[in-house]
Structures are given as structure tokens and as C-alpha cells.
């Protein structure tokens, strides 16, 4: 293409050795953002780049290192060698380390790796290990006292007697770990800065106490008998899922009383409260900050479950969003149906409720009654979303149209 007349044709060229002249901090930022495989490949760019990857402070070893089944087999048989090369070539601190190897056949010996990390000021550690026999964390793990973020999967936590906890933790996520209830309580209570807690543990059977004065988010999945909240003045998000039914009476009022700052509540089911005895019409106090309520499984033909859901609705006066997933079933529990009658809510109005979502509806009488109730008692309701279980079913749409005409 010819340059326009009267203008000089300028060709912009890069400096001849721009890659080699980049500041180290810029190079580090580039390498951190690359998958480890690509970061290592930069060693062929020039002699100066040959060992740049060796000082990366954040390392991630995951599925990105092996994308085919052939590669997976190779990695499985040579995993120890790969770790050895990384540990012998790396220089400088490692502040964040992620190891995600859920598909390996058995867990390799990681003791040397843990010892190496314990001497490198590790602050963020993620270990997602293969299923089977849990990996017993070595003593070197328990001296990583700079840890601020910790994620463990398929590990055995058995600290030495001298271990006092990680007092700098702000995030703790434990998936399928083997740990005693008492040790878990101690680990949480000795983390005074803890803000995020995720527990997906099936092996607990005792009642555990949660004492975390800075905790803001708690997600629990397991088969524990009951949870007792002690000092949690800032807890805003709570998600509870009980995997199996455990016969244990849980005092609903006692459970919710400490949750003074709660804003978002997600209950996967009502197993935590099955066997709680007679459910009160409402809690003896209001939780005025709760804005979002999600119940992922509720049987509208079971009186206890319906009563519990309605108890929460009455006790959250500032509720703005409700999501309920209805479980299929049928029954002749007349009291459960009577609980949903609008007349039962003569002294209640959901004055802040703006959106309702009902999932897996089948157009049963109880579902229709619930929709009528929410429509009648929610003066500022903006939207109600209905996801029917059967596309052909039109009963839920019919009741919505009927309610909107009043």
C-alpha cells in the first residue's frame, strides 16, 4: 500500500532485545499469569529467560499439565520426578502453591514437598488429592504459620501436641478430610482472623461449636448431629446441608439466636431440623438483616417441613428474595395444607419481598396455596418465577395468572 502523498511513511519497530530488557517484576507478572507448562516453555526464548520461571512465587500443578489420557498415565508414573525437578530448580519464596491431582492412582508421598513449602513462607496452600486413603499431613505442614488461605481435600489432620493453630488464617476450606470434632473446634477457634469457612466433612458425628469472631461466610455439608454457634457477630452468609438424617433434637431458636448479622441463608434441606419436636410459629426474635432465603428441598405435604419454612418467613421481616425447590410427593396431611392458608397469616405481611422463585413445581394443591399466600401477603412483589417440573403442566401458570388479577 502506497503512503499518502505529502506524508512520510513511518515504520515502527520494537527495540532489538525488548524481551531481555524487561524488568524482573514485569517478567514475574507475565509468568504468574501463564499455566506452569507455558511458563516453563518460556525458557527457550533466550539464555536470560532460561531460568526466569524458577523464581515464580505462585505455582499451580493441576490438570492443565496433562490434557490427554496418555499424558495422565505419564504424569502418574513420573510425578515424583516432576516434583523433584521443580523443588531443586526453584529459587526464592513460594507464597502460593496449588496441587490438584484428583485423578492420580493413589496419593504420592508429598512429605518432601511439604518440607520444602514450610521453608518458603507459604501463605496460600491448596491440596486437592486423590480419593482413597487420606494423605497424612507431616509435621512440617504444621509449622507453616504464615498461612492465610488453606484448602485441603482428602487429607488426614493429626497435628503434634505442640501445634497451637494457624493464627493468620482468613480462609479455611476442608473437603473430605479426616479430623476429630474437638480438633476441628480448636483449629477454628485458634484462627481469630478467619472470615471464610467451608466444611464438607462426612465423618463427624458429634456436636461442634463454631467460635470465630471475624467469620463472615460459612458453608457446611456433612452428617453432623448439630452445630452450635458461639461467637459469630459478623456472620452474613450461611449455607447448611446435612447429607444423612441423624436423629438429634436441634433447638431452632438456640441455633438462630447468635446469627444477628445474617443476610443470606441457604438450606439444602430440612434435615438439620427434623426431630426438633414442635416447630414454633415464629422465632422468639426477629432477624432483621436477612434478605435472601433459599430452601433447596422441601416437602409441602410434611407438616414439620412446612411449619419450619413458614417459621423462618415470619421471623425474617426484611426478606427481599425467596427461592424454594419443591420435592415431588403426595400425602393427606391436612394440617400441612392448613398451615399455608392465607388466613393463618393475618398478622404477617412480607413488606420487603420483591422476588420469589419456585422450582420443580407440579401444580399440586399445596404449591398453589403457597403461591396464593406469597402473592396475597407481599405488597411490593415485583416478580415471581416458576420453573415447572413438567413443561406440559400449566396449573402453576394458571394460579399465577389468577393471583395477579386480584
From TrEMBL:
F-box domain mapped to chain residues: 16-69
A Pfam family of this chain: F-box
Cross-referenced SUPFAM superfamilies: F-box domain, RNI-like
PANTHER family in the cross-refs: F-BOX PROTEIN-LIKE, UBIQUITIN-PROTEIN LIGASE
Name assigned to this protein: F-box/FBD/LRR-repeat protein At1g13570-like isoform X2
Source organism (scientific name): Nicotiana tabacum
Gene it is expressed from: LOC107760395
